[in-house]
Specification:
Layout lengths: L4 E17 L12 E9 L5 E2 L6 E8 L3 E9 L15 E17 L8 E3 L3 E5 L17 E10 L4 E3 L6 E7 L6 E10 L10 E2 L3 E10 L31
Antiparallel strand pairs: 1-6, 2-5, 2-6, 3-6, 4-5, 7-14, 8-14, 9-12, 9-14, 10-13, 11-12
């Protein structure tokens, strides 16, 4: 099957310190889509709560000591709209911080929790955020959509993406030295493990990064054409006709 692909997305930034983050759904969502939310924020081991029912944490408070990365997923019902917090409200950061987020709706994926995986995560302080390697639970040989994702601290911005990761490149930043950014990019890969390589930042600062994999939809079994039935041969018995005079 073909790889999963991005149907639609929404993005946003919090440009000043706050615990109340306004995160909203993208405009186009179809039942069964994989909703993937990634957040980069300032501060150490910051986590998020208050998401409405159906959201599951993929990665919580991955940090280098200066910024934090969080990821969540949800299998769409098709009725999602507006803010993603319980009761269509904002979600809550564990401390007053600023940062950036992206929420994507992915189509043509496996359809259950067994179709998404994330690496342990990596962190550091440099100009090259480098997501760690991920061994796919479903193995090699499938067209897996791989997402390199991460967060950065301070005023640095993304100037380059991992080699070959040209799908849906994204980077945003809340601005300023007290801010934080979030970045991502994708590739379709049939191998396992997958190891994206590094992003490039405009300068050296703290970062946290990981690798997310989305399995394609299961192949539909091909049963072939109906079995051909051999024609039945019926013997012809000659009929003897007698004439009457």
């Amino acid at each position: 099957m073909a790889a999963a692909s991005l149907r639609s997305s929404s993005t946003g930034v919090e440009t000043s310190n706050t615990t109340s983050w306004a995160v909203s759904y993208p405009a186009t969502i179809v039942a069964g889509d994989l909703l993937l939310l990634t957040i980069g924020c300032d501060g150490t081991t910051r986590s998020f709560s208050g998401l409405e029912s159906g959201w599951t944490s993929l990665k919580s408070a991955l940090t280098d000591g200066s910024c934090s990365f969080n990821a969540f997923y949800k299998i769409a019902t098709g009725s999602e709209s507006g803010l993603i917090g319980t009761g269509a409200t904002n979600i809550t950061c564990s401390s007053s911080e600023q940062g950036a987020w992206r929420l994507g709706a992915f189509q043509d994926w496996f359809g259950t929790a067994a179709g998404i995986a994330i690496s342990t995560g990596a962190s550091g302080a440099s100009s090259g955020p480098d997501p760690d390697s991920l061994t796919l639970p479903w193995g090699s040989g499938e067209d897996t959509l791989v997402r390199a994702v991460g967060a950065s601290d301070g005023s640095v911005t993304v100037t380059g993406y991992p080699s070959g990761y040209t799908l849906n490149q994204f980077a945003d930043h809340s601005g300023g030295g007290a801010g934080a950014g979030m970045f991502s990019a994708g590739i379709v890969d049939t191998g396992s493990p997958v190891n994206p390589g590094a992003f490039t930042l405009s300068g050296s600062d703290g970062w946290a990064a990981a690798t997310i994999a989305i399995r394609p939809a299961a192949a539909v079994a091909y049963e072939g054409l109906p079995q051909r039935v051999a024609p039945r041969i019926v013997p012809v018995v000659p009929v003897q006709v007698r004439s009457r005079w």
